[in-house]
What we know:
The chain is mainly beta. Helix content is 6%, strand content 33%. The longest helix has 9 residues, at 379-387.
Amino acid sequence: MKLSAPFVLALTVSLTACGGSGDDGFQFPGATGAALPYALMGRVDNTEKTEIRNGSYGSAMAPHPTREGYFYGLSDRGPNAATEAGRTPSGIIFLTPDYTPRIGLFRLTGEGKPELVETILLKDPKGRPITGLPNKRFGGTGETPYNLDGSVVSLDPDGDGIEGFDESGLDSEGLVALKDGTFWISDEYGPHIVHFDATGKEIERINPFAADPRNKAGRVLPAELSTRWPNRGMEGLTITPDGTTLVGIMQSNLHNPTSAVGSINLTRIVTVNIGTGAVAQYLYKQDAAGLANSEIVALSATSFLVIERDTKFYGIDTGTIRKNVYKVDLSRATNIDVSHTALRAGQAAFTASAANGLLVDGKTLELVVKEGGAEGNFAAGWARLAALGIQPAAKTLAYDGIASQKYPHDKMEGLWVIDANRLGILNDADFMIAPDGKGGVKQKYLYDGKVESNMLYVVKPIAPIF
Length: 466
């Protein structure tokens, strides 16, 4: 299986749409939503002639901080797919290993259509375009990067002599756009939180690796976050309204201390004071094991909206399908970070591990929940934590995508708080491809037979959110 000739050529083209400034009037999309534009990157030389479509900006979204009717979208690491079962070593197929993760600036037209007006390619501190290839030292996931033909990727984008890896590479998933024109982005590798200037060049970063010289002294993420399982890192990122604190949410539970934890319904919210480096962590209780928290947006210093979803398609998959937005309150949640020494005072059950965080009777919080139940019912583990004074974030349903609109996409990932009664929702379309289970890819379709696309919907929450 190979790519047709136009594929590589299309990667060098920067998408820029014309159509005026947009400041003179715009509309939000109607009830059926509006598709984001895309450009054909190429076709896979298979029977289907699968199209790869550049423009998959659905990993996150953020409103432009000063221009009404404008918003940013974020791509992830590029067109990719999991290898087939049984491949050794297992890994990820990168259809375009030199793809550069990017931010797209969009404007809404007077007809409610999103138009791409600027593309910002992400770059390392030296100004070189990064890739979506995995990290080797700080944030390695154990994934082997493959080309579509089955060979191991030989690209060395950062010039460190380690082929197939990029120490500045990101699987970008969370986005914050600041008034000074800079951006913070979180990812699924380290996880890393990286600060980029207005041109997309890296300024600084925060990650769980104290030995990484790119971290400022005294500013590091909790070490246990590095136990995220591959492709389940820091999926959402926001900043408090006062601009002082970054708030990230992990997509799923940590494999803390090992992958034997499996899948449970505990994930974590982490806060980082940008100025002081002070860190806090809070537990988030998902509705079921295996779900994903794919976005977080701050309403206040302690109140947030969070997307909680599965990866099922309405109209295709069976059983319960979840595409929900929750309003989350941290005001009474327990800070379980090891830096919160007052929590451990007088509690003999609590100890601290530099690598794995707060422990209960020598076990990680993930193990406490894991061993307190079974798939779909971890009540005993959560009760054990509650008995020790550990309370998760409170949450109330703000929007049910299945009940309200039969949300047709698998990955609800972008969230825009327009006002108290309107939310913008954007899906990740995965460059309109899906793994075929045989070491290749196929087109990604919805239940109505249409090819998946990035869609912006403007929806009404169950009740005003503030």
